[in-house]
Amino acid sequence: MGKIKSFFKASVVLTGTLHVINKCIDSGLTTSLNTRTNGKYYQWKHGNIYYKILGHGSPVLLVHDLTVLSSNYEWSQIIDKLKAEHTVYAVDLIGCGRSDKPLITYTNYFYVQMIQDFVNDIIGEKTDVVVNGLSSSFIIMANAVNPKLFNNIFVLNPKSINELKKIPDQKSKLLIKLFQLPVIGKTLYYIATNKENTEYILTENCFYSPFKVDSAIVKAYYNSSHLAQGNGKMLYASLLGNYLNVDISRALAKADNRIFLITGEQIKNKEEIESSYLRLNKNIINFTVEKAKYLPQLEMPQQTLELLVL
């Protein structure tokens, strides 16, 4: 009985300590993140969606990669050039950046619904779309559900078809339950998204040249993951558990839009990704951005712009 009491007391102390540490992280972010911006909010049924609207002309929707670090900051190096001839909509997906981060299990179809409603309610007409990473999958799915949403589709470094076929398993369910725990889940999330890990992900996984990852980029990605006081943890768990995956094979095969596949020279499984997408839809036009990896729009903005034939 004495050992049980000691264990219980130790657990209470540990939990309390972690709670205090989490609160300190939250309070340290308040001042630096709650700043005014020139963006707007779309009051969607599942939460407020932050977006920027810039320029005049035919509409272009910019959709960043779906990670807890991501936001519309991805497009910061090309948006000024695009707005010279287009009305540009740069959105923060729900669960990311300045948009709301509900504590739910996220799925691909959740974002398919979000994109459909955003285009219909905010843009109000058929639009070109430039999308990065995993987010490409729900743009392809949204296009299959409603062919009236998009004109040209520019897909940057999409996830491989085989990776998208991986589905949640028992381990995925355990991950969701673990991250649902108020203190433990938040602590694990803050460990995964600390500044050191954020910088490592950017330099090792996202950029061809790690020397281009400056403090401003690290800060933007770190801040994005820490808005809403750790509520990004459920998107993080959903991503780890493969809840955002979906087989896009049929949707991609039947798409009759002009689809441009743009890949960084050094992305993982580049040839496999390109061949699988081109095999499913022979009308896809394929380009490579040299000396770039997963974020060519940040690393090689001029070369990326030249491939956006809008």
Report on the structure:
This protein has 310 residues and is an alpha/beta fold. It has two domains: 1-35; 39-307, Rossmann fold (3-Layer(aba) Sandwich), CATH 3.40.50. The chain is built from 14 helices and eight strands.
What are the key terms here?
single chain, 310 residues, alpha/beta, Rossmann fold, 2 domains, 8-stranded mixed beta sheet, 8 strands
Structure summary:
The chain has 310 residues and is of the alpha/beta class. The chain is 48% helix and 16% strand. The chain contains 14 helices and eight strands.
CATH fold node name of the largest domain: Rossmann fold
Main β sheet profile: 8 strands, mixed
Strand content: 15-25%
**Structural domain tally:** 2
Mean pLDDT: 90
CATH class of the largest domain: Alpha Beta
- Unreliable sequence segments: 1-24, 30-36
User: Which architecture of the largest domain does the CATH hierarchy give at level 2?
Assistant: 3-Layer(aba) Sandwich
What is the 3D form? globular
Task: Walk across the major sheet and give the strand order.
Answer: 1-2-4-3-5-6-7-8
Helix and strand composition category: alpha/beta
| Total DSSP E strands | 8
Note the topology.
Layout: H1 2-33, E1 40-44, E2 47-54, E3 58-63, H2 79-82, E4 86-91, H3 108-123, E5 127-132, H4 135-145, E6 150-156, H5 161-164, H6 170-180, H7 182-192, H8 195-206, H9 215-226, H10 233-240, H11 249-254, E7 259-264, H12 270-280, E8 285-289, H13 296-299, H14 301-307
Parallel strand pairs: 3-4, 3-5, 5-6, 6-7, 7-8
Antiparallel strand pairs: 1-2, 2-4
Helix pairs in contact: 1-7, 3-4, 6-10, 8-9
